[in-house]
Amino acid sequence: MAVSRAEKETELQELSEAFRGTETAVLVDYRGVTVPQVTELRRQIRAAGGSYRVVKNSLAKRAAAGTTVALLDKHFAGSTAVVSTGADPVAMAKALTAFLKATPSMTVKAAVVQGQAVAATAVSELATMPGKPELYAKLLYVLQAPMQQLVTVLSAVPRDLVNVISAYERKRTDEGASAS
Q: How far out from the chain centre does Cα 170 lie?
């Protein structure tokens, strides 16, 4: 069944919008991957806040013009799928890398990470980095530590005073008990 010009234009518009909202994109060669495997990959990528889309190379090149994905223009050849996200690139890289380990027939062609073209091997390196939630937790800990130390220092004086008074009271009680 032939695809009409209107359908191609619609697909080009959808792809252009998807690429404009993308900070991170990975081009993968999906040859040798079964439909159930692709379905599982789509589910994992969607859970990580990304999308997986098989593209026609000529349409993808036209849609990428003027976006960060245009840096990958020369890699749109052969069977190509685009894994992209506008949110957390680390979560997407972790999901993709885990899938690639289980499915060696799928390979990474090239990638753009937050507007910078990177080598295909950088995707697996990106997957080893901590994700946004973990980085936020570390930042919160770093911001909270000085306040916690200040509270500890400020509460030390009253606590020490209570300990001295308590020790004095015990001493008086012991002296009173030994005098009787």
A: 58
